[in-house]
Write a structure and sequence with these properties.
- This protein is α+β, with helices and mostly antiparallel strands and 239 residues long.
- The protein has a 6-stranded mixed sheet with strand order 1-2-3-4-7-8, sandwiched between helices. Strands 6-5-9 form a 3-stranded antiparallel sheet, with no helix packed on it.
- The two termini are 40 Å apart.
- The relative contact order is 0.17.
């Protein structure tokens, strides 16, 4: 899947969650870049720049979520059309590796690395704001896609109390808010949270009037656990 497909998928999720986006008419050029999208809302030109902030990073500090889809199709293509029947152990080993890659990246999650990555990516796009606005825009926003294993977190509130919590909205921390609330440079921010294998998503729009509930930090629920999944083939005795 190409980069433009990811951008479009993310905006489609946002449209499902935020009704006002459905009124925007996409007038982007065929190979629109910087910003990724240009819309008309009435006679108002709106620019939208997309980027990914992943909570799952592999050994190279690269997005595990983007690699996951490629790996899933690779296993599927290898064992479809009778491939599983010929080599069930190999198929289960391939599936086992997929799960364990995700588990390892979740277990190894580092909040400070996440904040560092967010700061670098967000500021990189902020540095191009004047270039984006040169497209004759009345309004400019960022579409921040956040990939998570599930919408359940270990949150530490501002009183340093830790508890497990299911949230649709991403747990914005004071560190994150300091980075993303630069509304002297952009007009709004859309945060789209996508979990697991795109089973759930939630989007919301943030601007200078938004009053977020802030947390001290968050962690992923399986962080630090010595967890490794092992699958086994169980044969049907009736065969």
């Amino acid at each position: 899947m190409g980069r433009k497909n990811y951008e479009k998928d993310c905006f489609d999720y946002a449209c499902k969650d935020i009704k006002q986006l459905r009124r925007w008419k996409d007038i982007s050029a065929e190979h629109q870049e910087r910003p990724d999208f240009i819309f008309l809302n009435g006679d108002k030109r709106i620019g939208l720049e997309h980027f990914l902030i992943d909570t799952l990073l592999n050994e190279k500090q690269d997005s595990q979520s983007r690699h996951r889809e490629h790996d899933i199709y690779k296993v599927y293509d290898k064992y479809k059309d009778g491939g599983y029947d010929r080599n069930p152990e190999g198929a289960l080993h391939g599936i086992e590796n997929l799960f364990n890659k995700d588990l390892k990246t979740e277990i190894d999650f580092d909040y400070q690395v996440f904040i560092s990555t967010l700061t670098e990516v967000f500021n990189k796009h902020l540095s191009r704001v004047e270039e984006y606005r040169s497209q004759g825009l009345e309004s400019l926003g960022f579409l921040m896609e956040i990939q998570v294993p599930r919408m359940e977190y270990l949150v530490t509130d501002m009183n340093l109390r830790i508890h497990k919590q299911c949230l649709n909205e991403f747990p914005l921390t004071a560190d994150m808010w300091k980075v993303v609330s630069q509304f002297d440079k952009i007009d709004f921010l859309i945060i789209t949270v996508i979990d697991g294998f795109r089973n759930r998503h939630h989007s919301y729009m943030v601007d200078k009037t938004y009053k977020p509930k802030l947390y001290h930090r968050f962690d992923l629920v399986n962080q630090g656990l010595p967890w490794h999944m092992k699958l086994n083939v169980i044969k049907d005795n009736d065969e």
